[in-house]
């Protein structure tokens, strides 16, 4: 079973002596990885005690890097603190709906003006 670790607990580990971070709702202890990180320790320290998912994904880490993650995983966020994929998708869904709505509205206005 996964160890449940809250965001409040992760927040306490943001100093070089102990660096934890959240990536995709899982908690990682990267303290021993700081010096080994090919992207430097600063990029890791920047998101220490926080959610580093965005930073991790922005870089476009390789499959090797993703494989390496497993080594440092110490637990997961409690379900109520997880950022769900569905939530992310629903944002996209609204954006697409809004765009579709704008296009339809455009057509309706155009038609009305042609009358
Ligand atoms: C436990 C978490 C992480 C692991 C295991 C990891 C691993 C790696 C590895 C193996 C590389 C070499 C390139 C590759 O294979 O993709 C790399 C590069 C890099 N990483 Fe990470 N990384 C982690 C977290 C992060 C985070 C949170 C950030 C930024 C907020 C970051 C920023 C970078 C940058 C800037 C590079 C250099 C890319 C380049 O030179 O092209 N990494 N990382």
Automatic annotation (TrEMBL):
<keyword id="KW-0812">Transmembrane</keyword>
<keyword id="KW-0479">Metal-binding</keyword>
<keyword id="KW-0813">Transport</keyword>
<dbReference type="GO" id="GO:0046872">
    <property type="term" value="F:metal ion binding"/>
</dbReference>
<dbReference type="InterPro" id="IPR001199">
    <property type="entry name" value="Cyt_B5-like_heme/steroid-bd"/>
</dbReference>
<dbReference type="InterPro" id="IPR050668">
    <property type="entry name" value="Cytochrome_b5"/>
</dbReference>
<feature type="transmembrane region" description="Helical">
    <location>
        <begin position="92"/>
        <end position="109"/>
    </location>
</feature>
<keyword id="KW-0492">Microsome</keyword>
<dbReference type="GO" id="GO:0005789">
    <property type="term" value="C:endoplasmic reticulum membrane"/>
</dbReference>
<protein>
    <recommendedName>
        <fullName>Cytochrome b5</fullName>
    </recommendedName>
</protein>
<dbReference type="GO" id="GO:0020037">
    <property type="term" value="F:heme binding"/>
</dbReference>
<feature type="domain" description="Cytochrome b5 heme-binding">
    <location>
        <begin position="2"/>
        <end position="78"/>
    </location>
</feature>
<dbReference type="Pfam" id="PF00173">
    <property type="entry name" value="Cyt-b5"/>
</dbReference>
<keyword id="KW-0408">Iron</keyword>
<keyword id="KW-1133">Transmembrane helix</keyword>
<keyword id="KW-0472">Membrane</keyword>
<keyword id="KW-0349">Heme</keyword>
<comment type="similarity">
    <text>Belongs to the cytochrome b5 family.</text>
</comment>
<keyword id="KW-0256">Endoplasmic reticulum</keyword>
<dbReference type="InterPro" id="IPR018506">
    <property type="entry name" value="Cyt_B5_heme-BS"/>
</dbReference>
<keyword id="KW-0249">Electron transport</keyword>
<dbReference type="InterPro" id="IPR036400">
    <property type="entry name" value="Cyt_B5-like_heme/steroid_sf"/>
</dbReference>
